[in-house]
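**User:**
If convenient, please work through this fold.
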Amino acid sequence: MKVDRLISIVLVLLDKNRISAQELADMFEVSLRTIYRDIDAIELAGIPIRSTSGVGGGFEIMPNYKIDKKVFSTADLSAILIGLSSISNMIQSDELRNALAKVKSFIPTERAKEIELKVNQIYIDFSQWIGNSNIQSYIEIIKVALQENKLLSFDYIAHRGNKTTRVVEPYQLVLKSTHWYLYGYCLKRNDFRLFRLSRMSTLQKQKETFIPRDYQKPKLEFADVLATLQTNIKIRIHKSIVDRVLDYCPYENFIPDDKEHYIVSFPFIENDYYYDIVLSFGDKCECLEPLHVREKMKQRIYDIASLYKK
């Protein structure tokens, strides 16, 4: 007896005034005997179902148990559909498709067009423009491992290119700032770790299962840490890269310098990642201060130039 079929039958009964056993059997592609067993199970769960015989007969939930579809506002249904549709763009599963279908069953006919317009006003697509083509398949592997409590193994490229082989107990699949991560207990480090999917290779679900351990969710909000580490540097940029710089700081940080340039107070942490960001602006950006950051930028540019002189 499948629980999802029982839930679906309940939703169908809530949606219709009355439906015959044969219609239910055809809808769920099971025998009449199975439908009668399902109805008995639903009644045992405390949901009052009334059956009538003869022409036009069938099953129905007692009227006083009916859920009024109007209990969901247009905004409620739109928000649910936007969320489910956005996730289903990246994570393919029967559960999500069924959930979408069930939520749509609550939409009254007279409000269907209005809700469709509201849902289409916001479109969220988590798929990448470019990047690692393995991400989608890795998400599917991790999702199954999470459901089955199976170990995962993979090769991982860590900081500064160090490559290691990991075996991990998976606990969460995390999307943070357009990047997917696996949060799990690493048997190599004997601790919880956050692994970026784009840095994985040869990901495989193992046959071994594990007993889930207590854990705390990963810390994904770093505002307090950034407040202590982050400073602002002064850069001079050409107007042609304003759109790119806006990805990292608000327009309030821009002061016109002349018709072609801006002086920008740019958020910065002294590590390779932030130096690489500034370097990515190429000859359209000059670091003005502080002096020690400017000098390090000059050294990095010199090192790059030296590489191409060989």
In short: The chain is about 40% helix and 25% strand. The first helix runs from residue 3 to 15. The domain at 3-65 is CATH 1.10.10.10 (Arc Repressor Mutant, subunit A). The first strand starts at residue 49 and ends at 52.
